[in-house]
Design brief:
heterodimer, A: alpha+beta, B: two-stranded antiparallel sheet
Chain lengths: 199, 259
């Protein structure tokens, strides 16, 4: 190895060490805190609210803490580019309602679940993975991983993985298959999502 | 010399081909499902059976059978499965883990009264569950998301080439099956009861997740296909993790770039 190459390596190491040193305290602490706050909020909502009230409250939590835009975009995949601006807005609104309803119905009665946040891993592209466990009163704890990105107003959640199953990836396969079986365009998918949201 | 060079060229070409595939495989691609039509037909049949028979039984089992009884059944079935787990752990190159599993089996079969009580866990011998599908996935060079073609099995449900083969291997190496077969005792009834109970127990524990997935998907078949593949890949990644911590995270980075 030439001296120059060694110097480059050393510089590189020094730079990455500096980045890690300065970047970690800020970005590693926030995502974990975000997850804890969101979990506490959702548990509080499930404890105190029901029906439409609960759905609206959860929708607010989703809008404030989740990057619904990026998630919707990822879920549409390559079809995103074929949609008009109006279609995108309609799609995102319908998906938001669907997710809010799914979450509010998922929990039913609060049954003593708690969330323990574990390891936090920061990736070079700015994405942070927060490991956590959902402890139940009976049975095994459920493994939950949160993907957190830096949004314009602080960190936002961009995906949730339950036992290794990513919400965005599952939606992506689901939507893609629906589009392919319904003429290959996004319009029928949006109509179906809107019809379900109106129900 | 020329032969050697030709071989080198061939190897380079092959490597380029393989790595070409690898770099194109971002994990964002759809599950490979070349026999989707027959799979979907079997899926509909499975669902009919599930709706009229399996799910109701599983619901009754979950809601009406007392919790301790369910736990004992679970323990009993788990205990019968320990030898297969131990065999897989040996093949996976983890003899220590296999020894722990066999210790669990011996403790629970004796002190735990034929496996009805999980005494071993209280003694600090933690339970692991391995199957041949995971073992194949551990050694296969492919991404764990790539388990060969997707396969809908009758009664058992979602699977793929890898896990289907694994299921068959596990069945063949299962000491309990071999033992009862060689003793020439007519234990078919017990075997059938064991597999039947396994299905009901497993179904009762997946009611919540599957109901949720069905309700919140437009194409249940596609959503289940994706969820199954991801869940299995996650289990295999946990086994691979010792040597390959980064793969999953890098996959996620790639996914973020694809869109």
């Amino acid at each position: 190895m030439s001296l120059l190459a060694i110097r480059r390596v050393v510089l590189c190491l020094a730079a990455s060490a500096a980045v890690t040193f300065f970047a970690l305290p800020a970005s590693a602490a926030d995502p974990a805190k975000l997850i804890e706050t969101v979990a506490a909020e959702v548990i509080e909502i499930v404890k105190t609210k029901n029906g439409a009230d609960r759905q609206n409250a959860i929708k607010k939590v989703l809008q404030a803490n989740f990057d619904m835009n990026a998630m919707g975009r990822s879920a549409l995949g390559t079809h995103w580019n074929q949609t008009t601006e109006a279609q995108r807005t309609r799609f995102l609104t319908a998906v938001e309602t669907a997710e809010a309803r799914a979450y509010s119905e998922r929990f039913g009665q609060y049954a003593g679940q708690t969330l323990t946040v574990g390891k936090v891993t920061t990736r070079p592209n700015g994405v942070t993975i927060v490991d956590s466990r959902l402890n139940q009163s009976t049975g095994q704890p459920i493994k939950l991983e949160w993907e957190v990105r830096n949004g314009s107003q602080g960190p936002v959640i961009s995906d949730v993985k339950v036992e290794g199953v990513s919400m965005v990836m599952t939606r992506r396969s689901d939507f893609n298959s629906y589009i392919q079986n319904n003429g290959g365009t996004v319009e029928p998918l949006i109509k179906e999502l809107e019809a379900r949201a109106a129900r | 010399m020329r032969k050697a060079r030709r071989a080198l060229v061939a190897i380079t070409a092959a490597a380029a081909l393989v790595s070409g595939c690898a770099s194109g495989d971002t994990g964002a691609t759809e599950v490979w499902d070349p026999i989707e039509t027959p799979n979907r037909i079997l899926f509909s049949l499975n669902r009919v059976v599930d709706i009229i028979a399996l799910r109701p039984v599983a619901v009754i089992y979950r809601d009406w059978v007392p919790e301790p009884a369910q736990k004992s059944v679970r323990n009993l079935l788990d205990n019968l499965g320990e030898p297969v787990t131990a065999i897989n752990e040996v093949v996976q190159g983890n003899p220590h883990r296999a020894a722990t599993t066999m210790a669990r089996f011996l403790v629970n079969s004796t002190i735990g009264i034929a496996g009805l009580f999980d005494v071993a866990t209280q003694l600090g011998l933690e339970r692991t569950k391995e199957d041949a599908g995971k073992t194949i996935g551990l050694y296969a060079g492919a991404e764990p998301e790539n388990g060969g073609f997707y396969l809908m099995l009758p009664a058992i449900g979602p699977s793929n080439a890898r896990d289907g083969t694994g299921l068959m291997i596990d069945y063949l190496v299962d000491p309990f099956r071999i033992l009862t077969f060689n003793l020439a005792i007519d234990w078919t009834v017990y075997q059938a009861a064991r597999y039947g109970m396994n299905v009901i127990d497993y179904r009762s524990r997946t009611i919540f997740a599957l109901d949720d997935l069905e309700k919140n998907s437009l194409d249940y078949y596609a959503a289940l296909r994706s969820a199954y593949t991801q869940n299995r890949a996650d289990l295999i990644r946990q086994r691979r993790e010792k040597t390959d911590t980064k793969s999953e995270l890098e996959r996620r980075d790639n996914l973020a770039l694809v869109r």
